[in-house]
Amino acid sequence: MAxxxxxxxxxxxxxxxxxLEAFDTQHRSLSLSxxxxxxxxxxxxxxxxxxxxxxxxxxxxRPTGEYVVGRKxxxxxxxxxxxxxxxxxxxxxxxxxxxxxxxxxxxxVRDGTEALYVDRLSGHASVPVVSRxxxxxxxxxxxxxxxxxxxxxxxxxxxxxxxxxxxxxxxITQPGRLREQLRxxxxxxxxxxxxxxxxxxxxxxxxxxxxxxxxxAAALGIVVPDLKRDRPRLVAALSVAAQGIGRSLAF
Amino acid sequence: MAxxxxxxxxxxxxxxxxxLEAFDTQHRSLSLSxxxxxxxxxxxxxxxxxxxxxxxxxxxxRPTGEYVVGRKxxxxxxxxxxxxxxxxxxxxxxxxxxxxxxxxxxxxVRDGTEALYVDRLSGHASVPVVSRxxxxxxxxxxxxxxxxxxxxxxxxxxxxxxxxxxxxxxxITQPGRLREQLRxxxxxxxxxxxxxxxxxxxxxxxxxxxxxxxxxAAALGIVVPDLKRDRPRLVAALSVAAQGIGRSLAF
DNA sequence: ACTGTGTTTCCACTGAGCGGAAGGGGCGGC
DNA sequence: GCCGCCCCTTCCGCTCAGTGGAAACACAGT
Lengths: 251, 251
Description:
The structure is a homodimer.
Chain A: H1 12-21, E1 29-30, H2 32-39, H3 43-56, E2 59-61, E3 67-69, H4 71-77, H5 81-101, E4 104-111, E5 114-121, E6 136-138, H6 143-150, H7 154-161, H8 175-188, E7 191-194, E8 202-209, E9 216-224, H9 231-249
Antiparallel strand pairs in A: 1-3, 2-3, 4-5, 4-9, 5-6, 7-8, 8-9
Helix pairs in contact in A: 1-2, 2-3, 5-9, 6-8
Chain A binds a DNA duplex through helix 3.
């Protein structure tokens, strides 16, 4: 910034980012003072910068005076590679999969030590699940997470295995047991969970490889109330879709 | 900005926006010099600001040196009301509709004088269509567009009717004919197109009303190769889904 | 009428931002 | 191999854009 700042060394750009970061799933609309507090900026500064953001369309100011994230950010976000590449290519396959099984279908990538849900499809006949598009869930308690973890670098595995948070009574919290499961993911080509993330929900997932036998780029999973009945059928459907997505990814 | 600028009167924030605006559907990844040119900034300035954007995660720098939009922007965009409200609520209905018809399903809102496609579902069995999520198409040549236009304010209708661009030989370009069609949208509760946007594609669409008989918040449409055969069946399915979405929107 | 909270405007001070110039680095032409 | 070209990156002295406390303003609640 220029001049009279109480905290020198902070750039204008970083203040803009602070303002944007003030918004999250729990805070989708903020008044000016909330915004200023959450961004750690004095109200006049927040006011001036927010006005610039509104002018550009990054924020929208409601008649009530509250700020919400604007359409322009959504537009821009659609250009991010996570969306533009993977998601667009996978979309028709997810639809086919959902049409065939009527279960909730998930597409996720690994983001650090979490599973990032890039797309989700669920009809009314599906089990209710916690995940939403854009949400991040632990790698050790979800089907897609276990797949992503199995193919993650050694150091990531280490961090995750050292920190197995319990979510339900069935969550696997013993590093040894999980490591054994990861070994089987490699051997069998799929991972599953039984009420480890949310009670009443089981899942199966398979890796998506860029091209044939290439690196694992994402994971494709499905959530059902019960896995006993038709696990083989689901794995077959998942594999076919994953192969198709992988082939398309290779262009 | 502070100091030595060649074009005084331009704020830092607006330069950040210029950089972000340099990206669009045709330009998803840009080298530094391209970025600087498209943002109308001197290379050193672009370089410095881009580095800040990368540090925050708004941009990502590929090993090749090219910049792409980062995941953080995508994350933020998901918080925009257009996505958070309408899209999440409508998603299961779109899936059900797609499962029932196997056609391409569209959810759109009016953005000025264009139709903004908020969500799109298409399987492999569907007709290929030009629209993508986030794309904007003319109001007069698409099914959802006609619905949105029929319920748009008088001044918007005026602007659109005065500027009917031809897209295919079947596009309606006579204001009188279109106005007659809009009248029928109100009377019959649905709009359709016959190869007016792309050859070989026809569409039907219905309005989505917030609550029962409330204002039109969006339009729900479907694209098929031929409309003659089962228009009544499609309209019925669309109406049911639109009612459901509208009821959910009212909370 | 009074107090408190949130919003907006004002304005004098100053260091953050600026970008031309110059220094690498990579590639293709000859 | 050597040269020329383009792109990327760093440097650095000049200067005005950005700053935020103070104060006015708007509005509930009591």
